[in-house]
């Protein structure tokens, strides 16, 4: 019997051969689920897996053609391809949703992966004549939304990044939040001999400022690992701050100075943390869904909304878009289909969902134009991966009005009309007069043996996977 290392070698070789064959046959999809913190990525992936696993029994997927045509034979989870990554916590997420009272899955705090095999009958053509069934491989990666905002740092040197941070500190509520930090940066001796103790204290003050920005609902918070460090907690590579002082001659920074140490740490962070993360996980996607929580940004005000829009458009520049050829599928795949999805569509009444879609379209207007030029197929939608509310009717001033009912985050019954959604970026006067408060709901109480209720998850699956399951 071969020994374990040899057996492992042949198993890896077989897996690689199968993956290459799937890529050649165009039966392998790497799906990027992109969204900032709070957009609902983990709940979305949990629901996506649940809908597929339950597609032969309790799932409601009328717009997913392979289900509608009764060609889907089954879906199963298999071992993920990269054993260095954590296993996506599907069972734990479903456990939380099935609890009494139910709870949302825990937010992502590290990188995890899941692989599904989707077995189906071909719809027609040569495949139907040659094969009784086919199998498509679906890989999904989950990662903290906070880390996404680091990807644009790959194109910024320390001076450019510092200039961006200092400018950002002067804007809106950040001006108040950054006041103690700016005072400390202004009085810091940048050119003195490097003092790691002082740099640690200063970086902790910077980190506190970033956490306060996040707590205030601001979206453009980076470096992302300062607020969610993961395995880098306490490492010197997370101990740097932006330069604030007289204009520096970046070519003449004294060796061994505080500033020289900060520049080195920033470059180490960019080159040894952000770049490997990008190369390992973001350079091989075929399709992408971008989840955007427009409603929470509307709740939090103008600055939060503008930072969300800026963040999404900034992040999208880090992905590779365009049509895929056979060689590209094997060696350098591009994203050829993309969905922009306003999440939490169940937090507004059905008559406002069209406005929610138009609002999102206005936020990503320029990015959509550029991607269409590159040949990317794009859809904009509003969905709820787990529908947490019910729609009812009430009388108000002699007219029928749609209302939402569900349970708030404390478990209390809630029934309300959350308000009208603007169809595009609101005018400045809107933020002083807006009269809505989009609620937060607990997940619905339901039979744990049934599929999760949703809004438009079947349409999302059809757009993302329907052509691959023909």
Give a structural overview.
This protein has 470 residues and is α/β, with parallel strands linked by helices. It is 40% helix and 16% strand. The protein has helices spanning 4-24, 41-53, 65-68, 90-98, 125-130, 145-148, 158-168, 173-177, 179-187, 196-215, 258-281, 294-300, 302-316, 326-331, 353-363, 365-373, 430-433, 457-465; strands at 28-35, 72-78, 86-87, 112-120, 134-142, 287-292, 337-342, 377-382, 390-396, 399-407, 413-416. The strands form 2 sheets. Strands 1, 2, 3, 4, 5, 6, 7 and 8 form an 8-stranded mixed sheet that branches. Helix 4 links the parallel strand 3 and strand 4 (112-120). The model is unreliable at 17-25 and 325-332 (pLDDT under 50).
